[in-house]
Amino acid sequence: MSKFTKEMVDSYANKLLFNLTEEENQMVLDEFEVIDKTIDLINKIDGIDKLEPMTHALDDFAVDLRDDISEESIELKDALGNAGAVEGREIEVPKVVE
Amino acid sequence: MIDKSILEIHEALKDGTITSEELVGESLNKSKEIQEKYNAFVTIIDDAKGTGITESLISGIPFGVKDNFSTKDILTTGSSNTLNNYVPIFNATAVEKLLDAGAVITNKTVLDEFGLGGTGTTGHTGIVKNPWDRTRMCAGSSSGSACAVAAGVYPFALGSDTGDSVRKPAAYCGIVGYKPTYGMISRFGLFPFASSLDHVGVLTRNVEDAAIVTDIMKGKDSHDMTTWDSSNIHLKEALTRDVKGKTLFYIKELCDINNYDNPSKELVEHLDNFHKTLGLCKELGIEVFEESIDQKILNAIGSVYVVISCAEATSNLSNLTGIIYGPRSDKKNINEMMIDYRTKGFSPLIKRRLVIGSYVLQKENQEKYFKNAQKLRRMIVNIMKEFYKAYDGLILPVSCGPAKLLDGSIDKVSREAMALEDHLQIGNFGGFPSITIPNGFVDNLPVGVNITGNCYDDENILNLAYALESKMPYKNQIAKEVN
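Output (structure tokens, whole complex):
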């Protein structure tokens, strides 16, 4: 029996703030099985345990920190321009504390 | 004139044979025609205007922008319903540099939603069809850009490449797709998908145009801390260097037809054509060698990519709440608003990838999935870096053959052939410069060959690609429907 369940998939989706249809849930379950099998293969590759995880494409970044100088900010109307509802200087949302 | 090379158009603009305004008109008319046939665009910018002609080679010339690059005051959707009304207030750095050089945007091109796909079928405006054969895909995610350049809408378009999203569509559409070394072009203003793998790239119809456009876009950017100083790199100038004595290698396990059980006719022809291309390399004086990589490692490339990219995407797309931008839900509770917005806005494919990303990032799964995928990423990159001590570049066929049918034929790719589908992702794992150029036809449809080199060695890689391109008759080809 698969170690992956429909409920498990739904709980991950809920953590990501979306719901899945039955069909979408099944698609994820199918893909989990495939990934799980391949990961088992990865874990068996010789020498993998001795390596450091590679978190970025380049290992030789030379990061220059900027001076702490204030820069011009964007206009308020620009900052609010894409919001669905605005009141005065703020983005409007439904009451959070009920 | 719009279907010519950048240099040809520039000369015509300078001597007055054509004006920028006329070119823009040509590009817009062609955009409408192409949209009707292949659905390549999210937005056609009807009021685009011509510009003055300067010494900049791209001044006055129209171009396309993948719709995951921010464009000031122009709708930018990422081909997602979650941002179907989003209008940025700034230009991505890559876009800004092209505009500063006098180029003109005539359209925004369709992608797989937020770049998370390789078929050109998941954008919110519908499927992008291949300009050589409407029953086939362009691949993705830079589907619209590849389609439009191949169809002659303009000489170049912006793309982004997280796995192979510039280089595979280029092959399927019979054009050039180039992604430089990671960080050579700023990602500021590009919607992030998987930040450690995302590259800005360009689609053109010849290698020289790719060099010209990249020379303009590259450079350090204070808005992207991963950019680096490339002022000593001059891609266009380096194109004509002598390639005699340079060295390329290919991977036996991917290129030997005997390694495939029941290979398709297309795969047989594709690999046969690839070996003919190696013959052309040798005619140029390039030495070509065969090398071997453990098949287990090659088979795992796709999974390494899926695990890392999905995990990073989970984080990068978490800012999509529908509150500060995106179409707002009418639910009465803020949590329900976000759930409703994301449930309705994301396509099934994106949801699937995000759930996978969330799963591999769970505390109890991180070591087994995410960390081990990152470790194998390092192993693969280390293997490549060892090869690059001996060779100038890796040369491989792109994909298993020409563009796949849109009816789901991708599922029919055999397991051993999957590595051939996935190997371009190595270029993203290591941030390597990588270019695809057309190298012939299989079943009357274009196929491509890819050259990938070591980081910062972009001049060398484009030099090799330019030389190889000169030995084949596919430079500047325009797509014509064959089926």
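DSSP finds three helices and two strands in chain A.
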